[in-house]
Design brief:
434 Repressor (Amino-terminal Domain), alpha/beta, disordered N terminus, 348 residues, Rossmann fold
Length: 348
Amino acid sequence: MTEPGARKQRTTRRTSQRTTLMDVAARAGVSAITVSRFFNEPHRVGAEAAARVKAAVEALDYVPNLAAGGLASAQSRVVAMVVPNISGPIFAHTLEALSDGLAAAGYQLLLASSYFSQDNEERAVRAFLGWRPAALVLTSRHHSAATERLIEATQVPVIETWELTPRRPTLQIGFSHRQVGRDAAAHLWGRGYRQLAFVHNSAAGDLSAQERHDGFAEALRELGHRGAPVAVRPRAAPPMEAGAEALRALLARKRQRPDAVFFANDNLACGALLAAQREGWSVPGDVAVFGFGDYAFADKLLPSLSTIRPPAREIGEIAAAHVLTLVGGQQPKRLTALACEVIARESD
C-alpha cells in the first residue's frame, strides 16, 4: 500500500516534469522568447518581466532542459573547470569570481577536482568535452600527453589559469611560479637570512610547487647562497600535520639548520607555526616561516604569517570575461600576465 505522502510526492514530481516553457510564459504573462532569454540571456530581460518569470518558475517548479537548449542553439550554457583541489582555500576566490561572472550572463560553472593527478584530470577533461561546454578552464599547464591531445583536437575553447608559459598556444591567465620562488628568496635574503630551506607540498603531483622550489633555489644561487637550499617533502598527508612534521625535521638537523623556511603553501606554514608554539620555538627568533597563498587565516595567526599573495580573484574575473568574449564570437588576448605580491608580516 502506498503512503499518501509518497503518492503526493510522486504526483508533484510528474507534474513538474510536464511543465513546459509555454506554461511558465502563460503564468508570467510574457512571451516564450522572454522566458528563454531569462535563462539564456538574462541581461536582455527587463527587471519587471524577470521578476514575473522568476515567480512563475518557482510556482511551477519549472526546471529548464539545458541540454536540449544547448543542442537547439549549438551553444552550451555550462562552463567546465578542473582544479587540483576543490576544498583547497587557495582556489576559493578564483572559483567564486569565475562563477559569479558567468552566472551574471546566464552560464553555470561545473567543477571537477584532479587531486594533483594528471590521470584524474584527463578523465575529467574527457568527460567534460563530451558535453561540449561553452569553454573548458584548466589550472596550470601540467597535463598528461592524452590531455594535451584532447586540448589540441577539441573545438571547445580552452583556458589555462594560474600559469603563464608564453610558448604554449592556449589562452593563459596567470603568473610564473618560478618567479614566485625567486621573489620569496629575494625577500628572505633581504631580511638577512642565510640558511634557507624549502618544504614541498605533501600532495604528490604538485608540479607548480616544484617550480616555486626551482625558482627559489635559482635565485639563492645568484644571491650567493652556499649550495642548494635544504628541501623537505613531508610524508604526512594532512597539510598542517605535514608542515609540523617538516619543521621538526628541519630544526632537528645538526648541520644546515635553517634560519628561514619557505613553505609550498600557507596550510603547511600554518602547521609549522603551530608546531613551533608547541615546541617552544620562537618565530622568527629561532626560525622564520614564509608561505604562499595568503589564505584567509594568514593575517590572524600569532605571529601573523608572511606569505606571497597570488591574484586569485583577478584570475577568476578575467577567465569569466574571456569566456563571454569567446561565446560572443571574439578572441581575447592569448596571454594575460598577472603579478603576485609579497606580504610581509610577523613570522619573518
